[in-house]
Amino acid sequence: MTEHSPMTTAPATPAGPALPDAQTVTKVTHWTDQLFSFRVTRPKSLRFRSGEFVMIGLMGEPDPKTGRQKPLLRAYSIASPSWDDELEFYSIKVQDGPLTSRLQHIQPGDQIILRPKPVGTLVHDALLPGKRLWFFSTGTGIAPFASLLRDPETWELYDRVILTHTCRETADLEYGRQLVESLENDPLIGELVDGKLDYYPTTTQEESAKRGRITDLLRSGEVFADLGIEGISPQTDRAMVCGSMGLNLDIKEILEGYGLHEGANSEPAEYVVEKAFVG
Ligand SMILES: Cc1cc2nc3c(=O)[nH]c(=O)nc-3n(C[C@H](O)[C@H](O)[C@H](O)COP(=O)(O)OP(=O)(O)OC[C@H]3O[C@@H](n4cnc5c(N)ncnc54)[C@H](O)[C@@H]3O)c2cc1C
């Protein structure tokens, strides 16, 4: 498997026992030995705002004493936009992770549990109007932005959108790279995007077109020089951040240094943050 030819499994016949809030897997794509994406059917009644997350999972192993099984659920950003008929997720594979050690083996036709209660702060409603929108992501933190980038509202609200995605190796960037490429050919979004997107992928542990942590590249001003931007201003710039706890705190500090304030659904401001995972 190379980074340019992810392994995609074809749909199979639905099977398996009925689960509470069950949805059927329609497609699975393995990007690396640590990353995969999958699509599932969408409950007709599920409404969400692009950028939100839901709880998904599988039935847990039977309790050794009682034999009872409980759902094993984890938070997952919905990577597909709110208009899509299906739901897409982009996932890590933690080899000893209670959920993803099993979830990584799902096949089309299998069922997963999806609790239909979307929530989250990486939504347009939590930001005040602006001209330029920054999406800062590391690893699977690109998932909410994969949703927002495919939402026409993003392109109607902003003149320019900058997606930064930092991963260890080039292969880890491939999901995002293909997503960005597909936007231009998308019948719905292509015309709206029309030169407004700057994609800024960086790697920390392998040589690539741009090496380095996004925090260092912001502090040194290299990002701005590369993009031909003077800096970040609370009048024009808005930002959404999704990465590890450390990344989120560092970017918060940088954004606050430029005079931006953290927003929330109840009180929109200039930037919003969400953890890509706990730990
Ligand atoms: C708001 C929110 C949204 C999330 N969205 C996503 C998503 O879209 N995709 C996704 O893969 N995960 C996402 N996560 C993490 C997810 O909830 C689980 O932690 C992950 O699926 C692993 O589950 P697990 O049971 O296998 O291992 P866990 O016991 O949950 O995690 C084991 C350890 O693995 C590491 N880890 C967990 N998730 C990640 C990750 N995504 N990237 C790097 N290291 C990780 C952490 O160090 C963690 O302590 C999200 C978490 C939160 C809080």
Give a short summary of the structure:
With about 280 residues, the protein is of the alpha/beta class.
Overview of this protein structure:
- The chain has 279 residues and is an alpha/beta fold.
- The protein has helices spanning 100-103, 143-149, 152-157, 174-185, 190-193, 214-219, 222-227, 245-257; strands at residues 7-9, 22-32, 35-41, 53-59, 71-77, 86-92, 111-119, 132-138, 160-167, 197-203, 237-243, 271-275.
- β2 and β3 form a beta hairpin.
- The chain starts with 6 loop residues before the first strand and ends with a strand.
- Bound molecules: flavin-adenine dinucleotide.
- Flavin-adenine dinucleotide is lined by residues 53, 74-77, 89-92, 94, 97-101, 139-140, 143, 274-279.
Distance between the termini: 30 Å
State the helical fraction. 10-25%
Any idea of the CATH topology of the largest domain?
Rossmann fold
Shape: globular
Strand percent estimate = 25-35%
Order of secondary-structure elements: EEEEEEHEEHHEHHEHHEHE
Number of DSSP strand runs = 12
Radius of gyration: 19 Å
What small molecules are bound in this structure?
flavin-adenine dinucleotide
Domain FAD-binding FR-type: 18-125
GO molecular function: ferredoxin-NADP+ reductase activity
Family: Belongs to the ferredoxin--NADP reductase type 1 family.
Catalytic activity: 2 reduced [2Fe-2S]-[ferredoxin] + NADP(+) + H(+) = 2 oxidized [2Fe-2S]-[ferredoxin] + NADPH
